[in-house]
Amino acid sequence: MQVSVVYSVGVRCYTESILRRLGLVRFSSIFGSMNVKNWDSLIKCFDTNFHALFDEENLVCTKNNLKFAEENDKWWPRTLNKVLDDVNDYHSSTIAHHDMGDEDVKLHFQRGIKRLEYIRDNNIPILFVDISMEFDNRHPDKRLAESIIKYGITNMKIISIWKDGSGRVTEPTLLHADDHHIIYEIRSEGYYAPADESVINDVLHRHFTFDNLIKVDDILPAGMPMSGHALNP
After folding, report:
1. What is the domain count for the chain?
2. Is 230 among the domain residues?
């Protein structure tokens, strides 16, 4: 499959960082720095047109919250989500690196939603990628593809790569493949091991070609209106 957009769907900034080093990311993903803990979180985002993730009534900003004063000083303010997180647990935050009380942060995610809508509305081929050593992504859930298709993105594939650090896996192993979702496990030499990234690059190129990746200016031209997205219904 020829892919025009490579799009991280977590976990944390891990996948996004690897894909950038491999030269496959041309613009940031909505999920690029998010603590996506399970498939259910992604499904709720797509099923609700991102309202579950971004509606202000669902958000609890830790900034200026005395309960999280120590954590804010150490790691920076986060945004907790009533739908996706335990709002009493700072470390459960899905939006772990952004303060959604900041207008510039809101604009950042508005642009992200508008780009995804542009990809959807123009049927641009997109590859959703998640690489993990935390959330066990080896188990397919057909609801994920169904939720993305229901959102309107049909020209897409999902690939999940589990990095196994136990030494059990010796070669990249294809665990699952259907019309929408491919799952591999690979041997891991460490969290950011260059050897792992070479294997990941090989796995991605087994199934996809990336000769015509589009740039951010192709997706969100200057002056594109920002209305109609989840942050500004």
Report:
1. 1
2. no
